[in-house]
Amino acid sequence: MLRREGERAQLTTIPVSRPTSDGAILDKKLRMEDVPAKVRGRTRTASLMARLDESIARSVIHDLCKWRAMSAAEIADLLNKNRDYISSRYITPMVADGVLQYTIPEMPKHPDQRYVVPTDVLRKEA
């Protein structure tokens, strides 16, 4: 467990809606422990920063979206930052740069919008 100045750190959880095989929505909470160990440490470090370094933020967001499709709210909660700030400061520019793409490209403001790393970017990284 993390301890910070004598206080117990709280487990960060956010609601995640996942479709099941029959199309029903299964609500599950995304926890920091669900994030792959390789990304978890950097995500935790970034979440504890008072001011998020741009290169660290972009790298962590990229790695999270490489792992699985993530909503702006999920990313913001994992980074312990405001969703609107994360969206306008990092996600929107990363989509414009082609580093991320929408899961619903025809409706950028869709409430279920999530972000992933495009397959052509994944091929370049391999």
Molecular structure report:
This protein has 126 residues and is an alpha+beta fold. The chain has one domain: Orthogonal Bundle (Arc Repressor Mutant, subunit A). It has 5 helices and 6 strands, in the order E-E-E-E-H-H-H-H-E-E-H. A two-stranded antiparallel sheet has the order 1-2. The chain has a two-stranded antiparallel ribbon with strand order 3-4. A two-stranded antiparallel ribbon has the order 5-6. Helix 1 runs antiparallel to helix 2 and helix 3 crosses helix 4. About 13% of the residues have low confidence.
How would you summarize the topology of this molecule?
Elements: E1 3-4, E2 7-8, E3 13-19, E4 25-31, H1 37-48, H2 54-67, H3 72-79, H4 83-96, E5 101-102, E6 115-116, H5 119-125
Helix pairs in contact: 1-2, 3-4
